[in-house]
Write a structure and sequence with these properties.
The structure is a single chain. The chain is of the alpha/beta class. The chain folds into 2 domains: 7-121 and 232-292, Periplasmic binding protein-like II (D-Maltodextrin-Binding Protein, domain 2), CATH 3.40.190; 126-227, D-Maltodextrin-Binding Protein, domain 2, CATH 3.40.190. The protein has 12 helices and 13 strands. The protein has helices spanning 7-15, 48-66, 80-86, 97-106, 155-167, 173-176, 186-194, 205-214, 216-221, 244-255, 261-270, 284-292; strands spanning 37-42, 69-74, 92-95, 109-117, 123-124, 126-131, 146-149, 179-182, 200-204, 222-227, 231-232, 235-239, 272-277. It has a 6-stranded mixed sheet, sandwiched between helices. Helix 2 (48-66) links the parallel strand 1 and strand 2 (69-74). It is globular, with a radius of gyration of 20 Å.
């Protein structure tokens, strides 16, 4: 079934009556006054303590320049980000690519910016990897093996691997393998294979490559078998009912971080080059993968 990625906007137009340019009635716009809390949800991409420290630089900067109490909330799992938006518990979020398209299909969010990594890319890929001594070289060698993934709500740690097996003629990945378990984060999935808890793993290339740089033994003992198409790096999207002026100020702040010394210092601490503008069209390669897998984003079981 073809997925209509514009469904949330169409739904709003049909049922909300007279709308503003943001697709919402004027009475539904969420306004903020000085000092109000503004919550940004974070997917649990890596070690939670590292993540909290890293995003504190962003929230401190935004608090100062927006005049709000900007806070980051690291969620317990990837699928949770869809829940907190559906329940109106947060105002914005840094999304993985699949958690973004999943959330956008179920509620109205607007992508505004994403980071350019230190290697110059603003995209990432998914890996399928094994230990070099595993004897596994292709999908046919993976039968009855243990696969460590990240979450059902990730591209690099589930959707890509699902696509890989289907391309290799394996329609039911769970029956083909002896076990699939969700490690919860990309680094945990990678370590699971290195330590022998799993035979095969899937995670984001940036996290895997970072582990290789920091741990020579990890690099020497692991091998990548397959890589996905490129999808947008973890970008920030906001609820569509947020005050449009605040949306613009937030977007302008992020896109201009590389223009002054204070912003440059923040980017250095956050370990990225800059932020660039992002739109729904940037996710077209992922939408094609979703269509190919016949995934219904409105009913997808995103909880692990």
């Amino acid at each position: 079934m073809k997925i209509n990625k514009y469904f949330p906007l169409v739904f709003t137009i049909i049922f909300c009556g007279i709308i503003t340019s943001s697709g919402l009635t004027a009475g539904e716009i969420k306004k903020f006054k000085k000092g109000d809390k503004f919550t940004i949800a974070l997917i649990p991409e890596r070690n939670i303590f590292e993540q909290r420290k890293r995003y504190k630089y962003i929230t401190d900067y935004l608090s100062k320049h927006l005049g709000l109490d900007v806070r980051a909330e690291v969620l317990s799992n990837y699928g949770k980000i869809c829940d907190v938006f559906l329940n109106n518990e947060v105002d914005a979020g840094f999304f993985g690519s699949f958690s973004y398209v999943l959330t956008r299909a179920q509620t109205n969010i607007i992508p505004i910016a994403r980071p350019v990594e230190l290697d110059g890319t603003s995209t990432y890929t998914g890996y399928i990897f094994v230990r070099k001594d595993s004897g596994i070289k292709s999908a046919k060698d993976m039968k009855d093996k243990v696969l460590a993934l990240v979450s059902r709500a990730t591209t690099a740690g589930y959707i890509f691997q699902l696509d890989y097996f289907q391309k290799n003629g394996i329609k039911d990945m769970e029956k083909y393998l002896s076990k699939i378990y969700f490690a919860g984060s990309h680094d945990a999935a990678a370590w699971s294979v290195y330590t022998g808890e799993a035979d095969i793993g899937g995670c984001k290339n940036h996290i895997f490559n970072e582990l290789c740089k920091k741990n020579p033994d990890f690099k020497n003992n692991m091998v990548i078998l397959e890589e996905s198409v490129q999808v947008p790096s973890n970008g920030i999207a906001v609820r569509a009912d947020i005050d449009p002026d605040l949306q613009k100020r937030l977007k302008d702040l992020l896109l201009n971080l590389d223009k002054d010394q204070e912003g440059k210092e923040l980017l250095k601490k956050f370990a990225v080059i800059k932020f660039i503008e992002t739109s729904d069209k940037d996710y077209d390669a992922l939408y094609k993968m979703v269509d190919r897998l016949n995934i219904n984003l409105k009913t997808y079981p995103y909880h692990d």
